[in-house]
Amino acid sequence: QVQLVESGGGLVQAGGSLRLSCAASGRTFSSNAMGWFRQAPGKEREFVARISWNGGTTYYADFVKGRFTISRDNAKNTVTLQMNSLKPEDTAVYYCAAQIAPYTGGYYDTRRYNYWGQGTQVTVSS
After folding, report:
1. Interatomic CA distance for residues 17 and 25, integer angstroms
2. Is residue 82 packed enough to be buried (19+ CB in 10 Å), middle (13-18) or exposed (0-12)?
3. Given a cut of 80, is residue 15 above it in pLDDT?
4. Residue 6's pLDDT is what?
5. 4/26 Cα distance (integer angstroms)
6. CA atoms of 66 and 107, how far apart (whole Å)
7. What's the pLDDT band for 8 if we cut at 50, 70, 90?
């Protein structure tokens, strides 16, 4: 079992920044790749970023490249999403996810991830 708890969401003006954190507990965290997804009202959950177990490899959705940065601290069992230059279209519930089992599909596929947090709301005003 893995428990994931997100924090750091809130209301920010366009152009501002937020830092989301995901605290993991349970199964060994340091061996799992982690991802961030988001879901806006009426839309499907979409991939935002992913980081490998040791932080050596990261992937980003095109719409956040250059603005968001994913990182992790295995000593503290946390993964962080630094979000800069926020836009109103970034408004969504943001979810942290952990991959435990092997999966042959894309890194952006929600089915790759076995555990999810409850989400944290990010609202960007114009």
Report:
1. 27
2. middle
3. yes
4. 98
5. 9
6. 19
7. very high
Question: How remote is the C-alpha of 74 from its chain's centroid?
Answer: 16
Residue 18 has pLDDT above 80, yes or no: yes
Sign, Cα dihedral of 109, 111, 117, 123: positive
Model pLDDT for residues 68-92, shown as the tens digit of each residue: 999 999 999 999 999 999 999 999 9
Q: Look at the block and give the residue holding tokens 């980081």.
A: 51
* Burial class (CB within 10 angstroms; exposed 0-12, middle 13-18, buried 19+) of 45: middle
Spatial distance between the Cα atoms of 88 and 126, rounded to a whole number of angstroms: 6
Residue 60 and residue 48 in contact, taking contact as beta carbons nearer than 8 Å: yes
Helix residue ranges per DSSP H, the chain: none
Nearest to 110 by CA among 91, 123, 96, 90: 96
Mean pLDDT of 16-38: 92
CA distance 65 to 87: 13
